[in-house]
Amino acid sequence: MTTTPSAPPVLDSRQRGDARAVAVAHQPSAVPVARRTITADVSSRVDEELAHEVSVVVSELLGNALRHARPDDSGRVLLRWQVRGDVVDVEVTDGGSASEVRPQRPSPLATSGRGLRIVRSLAHEWGVTEDEEGRRTVWAALGGPTKRRHPVA
């Protein structure tokens, strides 16, 4: 994992229609900042339980991107989300990794390795896409089915 102590956790933020995005530094301090950002936004638009589930899923997806993947070419990881009625689509895009994204089967005493199982249990659906440049996007739809044919803008 790349760490840059002097870099701010949130490098860029933008909004287009209902879609929101934040580019975060590839460092652990970005996770709580991004989690608070998305939670503050969705809390005013969905019920409390769904907002909490979104917070947990974002923590897991960003944590995985920081632990297991490279940043994109600009040294960041991109978090995007969109609220559509009672459904929240979340995406985390990183620079890719040689490892496959799949839920693990940790031993009962393991202190890690449950992140994608948590995502799978909270999300209505989730998946992984990769582009031609090797960037990987892990996405989840919470609260109902997504319209994955149209990625978050």
CATH topology: Heat Shock Protein 90
Domain tally? 1
CATH class: Alpha Beta
Order of helices and strands: EEHHEEHEE
The 3D shape can be described as: globular
Which descriptors would you attach to this protein?
single chain; about 150 residues; alpha+beta; Heat Shock Protein 90; six-stranded antiparallel beta sheet; about 30% strand
List the helices and strands and how they pair.
Layout lengths: L9 E7 L2 E7 L4 H14 L4 H21 L7 E9 L2 E8 L20 H8 L2 E6 L5 E7 L11
Antiparallel strand pairs: 1-2, 2-3, 3-4, 4-6, 5-6
What does this structure look like?
The structure is a single chain. The protein has 153 residues and is of the alpha+beta class. It has one domain (10-142): Histidine kinase-like ATPase, C-terminal domain (Heat Shock Protein 90). Helices cover 28% and strands 29% of the residues. The protein is built from 3 helices and 6 strands, in the order ββααββαββ. The protein has helices at 30-43, 48-68, 115-122, and strands at residues 10-16, 19-25, 76-84, 87-94, 125-130, 136-142. A 6-stranded antiparallel β-sheet has the order 1-2-3-4-6-5, with helices on one face. β5 and β6 form a beta hairpin. The longest helix is centred in the middle third of the chain and has 21 residues, at 48-68. The chain is globular and about 35 Å long. The two termini are 27 Å apart. Mean pLDDT is 83; it is low at 2-6.
